[in-house]
Write a structure and sequence with these properties.
Elements lengths: L3 E5 L4 H13 L4 E6 L19 E5 L5 H10 L4 E4 L6 H6 L1 H23 L7 E7 L23 H20 L3 E6 L1 E3 L8 H10 L4 E4 L5 E6 H14 L5 E4 L4 E3 H15 L11 E4 L14 H7 L7 H14 L1 H7 L3 H10 L2
Parallel strand pairs: 1-2, 1-4, 2-3, 4-5, 5-6, 6-10, 7-9, 8-12
Antiparallel strand pairs: 9-11
Helix pairs in contact: 1-7, 2-4, 4-5, 6-8
The protein binds nicotinamide-adenine-dinucleotide and 2'deoxy-thymidine-5'-diphospho-alpha-D-glucose (DAU).
Length: 350
């Protein structure tokens, strides 16, 4: 069936992979990418689909009610996949309100626009909200996040995402909107903005800059290749059950310090440096305030009920990722100029 899908945040890291997958895999769908092009949005991420007949870009802010209304009407939107968000925990610590505005107010604005446009046919349309495992809080004593793990967000970012998840469920319950939510673990891969751990380290190893490891580097994250997340979103969008939540993850836990050391050794090899050279760049810095210790997703439900599983092993994904950054210097030059440099020196010092 032909659809006109509004994907928000499609110029960002994960959104760009989702847009590309949907445009290429579903030529009968019209894909409308709505993005405000904040510092994290980059149309260079979408070069592969630019000019494709089933792809449309709309520059708009999800906080702008009239813009949303016009876009729903102009493209007769049938479904929404909502990824637009402020996504960086460190930024949420310095500017929590920006996260409330986009992640909470923006999401409710989008829910309203969908509800108004779909009116009494709400059950014919899907509002898919893309969320994070951080809403479950921090694991300290083993175990995994399950879909029914109680929410316990610890940072302004995760509190804003938890709030947006609650609003989506409230719209499903109150207005009988057809919704689905997925909560994913840490993604890595091409197009990842270099304020996040993996691309920041790749960039700094390449340019011989210090590798800032927060605290003792003992915090654990569960890493998934971004294209596998995009495949999971495709699966949930088409096969997910109304009102359900699906956790997405790679069963792939790493301590931060081990990831940083792995990147150092792989890049020493690729850059023809003597083994051990890049590790000397590791610098332990002040810990993130309220730093969550460990995230780990149990992705059994999506595997068993919807048949999704990661396609790439971490070793393979990290090779692809490093090679992509080494082969896309222009992309890095563009995103590491101007505003990024200001942010970087404010956060880490010069
Ligand atoms: P990102 O920061 O790379 O991209 C966010 C995109 O949203 C950017 O293109 C930005 O321009 C756009 N945007 C921001 N504010 C907007 C606004 N007010 N109106 C319209 N567009 C706006 O983020 P990402 O890492 O790609 O994350 C995408 C989504 O996935 C987010 O909702 C995030 O919470 C979630 N998520 C991310 C991860 C991860 O590891 N990166 C893991 C799980 C879930
Ligand atoms: O778990 C999913 C979440 O993963 C997403 O919802 C977020 O949008 C995404 O940004 C990511 O959050 P994290 O805070 O886990 O990612 P980040 O890359 O910022 O940090 C990963 C770990 O590395 C974390 O424990 C903090 C640490 N870190 C990070 C940076 C930027 C450092 O030690 N040094 C750094 O310079």
């Amino acid at each position: 069936m032909s659809k006109s899908i509004l994907i928000t945040g499609g110029a960002g890291f994960i959104g760009s992979h989702v847009v590309q997958l949907f445009v290429e895999k579903y030529p009968d769908y019209t894909i409308v990418n709505l993005d405000a092009l904040t510092y994290a949005g980059n149309l260079e991420n979408l070069k592969a689909v630019e000019g494709t007949s089933n792809y449309i870009f709309e520059k708009a802010d999800i906080q702008d009610e009239s813009a949303l209304k016009a876009i729903f009407a102009k493209h007769a939107i049938t479904d929404v996949i909502h990824l637009a968000a402020e996504s960086h925990v460190d930024r949420s610590i310095t500017d929590p309100l920006a996260f409330v505005k986009t992640n909470v107010f923006g999401t409710v604005n989008l829910l309203n626009a969908a509800k108004e446009f779909w009116k009494d046919k709400l059950s014919d349309h899907l509002f898919y909200h893309v969320s994070t495992d951080e809403v479950y809080g921090s694991l300290h004593d083993g175990g995994f996040f399950l879909e029914d793990t109680p929410y316990d967000p610890q940072s302004p970012y995760s509190a804003s995402k938890a709030s947006s998840d609650h609003f989506v469920r409230a719209y499903a319950n109150t207005y009988k909107m057809k919704t689905v939510i997925s909560n994913c673990s840490n993604n890595y891969g091409p197009n990842h903005f270099p304020e996040k751990l993996i691309p920041l380290c790749i960039h700094n190893i390449k340019t011989n800059k210090p590798l800032p490891v927060y605290g003792r580097g003992e915090n654990v994250r569960d890493w998934l290749f971004v294209k596998d997340h995009a495949r999971a979103i495709d699966t949930v969008f088409h096969k997910g059950k109304e009102g359900e939540t699906y956790n997405i993850g790679g069963f792939n836990e790493w301590k931060n310090i081990d990831i940083v050391k792995l990147l150092c050794s792989k890049m020493d090899e690729k850059l023809g440096r003597e083994a051990g050279t890049s590790e000397k760049l590791i610098t332990y810095v002040k810990d993130r305030a309220g730093h969550d210790l460990r995230y780990a997703i149990d992705a059994t439900k999506i595997q068993q009920e919807l048949g999704w599983e990661p396609s790439l092993q971490f070793e393979e994904g990290i090779e692809i990722t490093i090679d992509w950054y080494l082969n896309n210097q222009d992309w890095l030059d563009h995103v590491t100029s101007g505003a990024y440099q200001k942010y970087y020196s404010e956060h880490y010092g010069d």
